[in-house]
Amino acid sequence: MLSTTGCKGTILVADDNDHNRELLSDILTCEGYKVVCAEDGQSALHMMRNHPVDLALLDVVMPRMSGFELCQLIKFNPETRFVPVVLVTGLSSVDERIRGIRAGADDFLNKPVNSQELLARTRSLLRLKEYTDELENAETVLFSLALSIEAKDPYTKGHCDRLSSYSEALGRRLGLPQEECVALRRAGVVHDVGKIGVPEHVLLKCGPLNDEEWKLMKQHPITGERICSPLKSFRLVLPIIRHHHEKLDGSGYPDGLVGDKIPLTARVLQITDIYDALVTDRPYRAAFSHEESIRTMYEEGRRGWWDNSLIQEFEALLGCEPPAVEQIHVAQVF
Length: 334
Known about the structure:
This protein is α/β, with parallel strands linked by helices. It has 15 helices and 5 strands. It folds into 2 domains: 10-133, Rossmann fold (3-Layer(aba) Sandwich), CATH 3.40.50.2300; 152-333, Hypothetical protein af1432 (Orthogonal Bundle), CATH 1.10.3210.10. 54% of the residues lie in helices and 7% in strands. Strands 2-1-3-4-5 form a 5-stranded parallel β-sheet, with helices on both faces. Strand 3, helix 3 (67-76) and strand 4 (85-89) form a beta-alpha-beta unit. The protein is elongated, with a radius of gyration of 25 Å.
């Protein structure tokens, strides 16, 4: 994250040529940036893993690892994927530019580097990084809020972790696009964030809810959608939050959607949510076994509540290779 202590930001300069490193370092240091240098791709990668960096300037042709390869690794890693990368190159062919774009490069600088162009591009990309940091902070707060709601109820411990893993794995099994699988992973964490608007005496009640209490509980998907709606990055998450309690026969809530009107991603998360609820102890009953849970889900599916074809896929998923469920780390969710 950009510093608030006077330094304008930390920039990594990776180049095997001493003169080029010194030139770029001098220009940037004079403008108030902190500069860290690496003489090859491997050293640069090690440096980025151990020191926060706001921008990376990478020479394309370096020993041990090219700028293209390093750029791809930076963008693949959830912890560094939002760091802007500029490829500094003497190569000018269209093919090389396309290769850089495919590796995830955010910009290019031609050698010999013009100092004014370097500073202009640096300022522009660091502004973009600052906006990205603000978005990431907002998402982090939201995920923390969702996990704090889960922590209030001892019976739901680990629920978000499991739904995040199960839903993403089921989405991948169904061949859903990558962006929808990411949305499922995120929705697994925040799907019940709207429960912050449900009074604790209702949320943690041991016995059945009365009509007024149910009315309050049924509002939580709408509240959750409203909380998350300012984040444009949650565009595909919002329908999952709102509709994961709908039923195929229209008897669900909050909108009483029927059949295919319920988004597929919401139905995917719904199946994993039902399963996890059945195999977990509750104040009013002991946990069901895996076999009892699947049998119950199929029976409810025959009543017209759930999608039995999705239950079948989920059962097969658990049968072949249960998804690894690990404690959620914010970077994994992104």
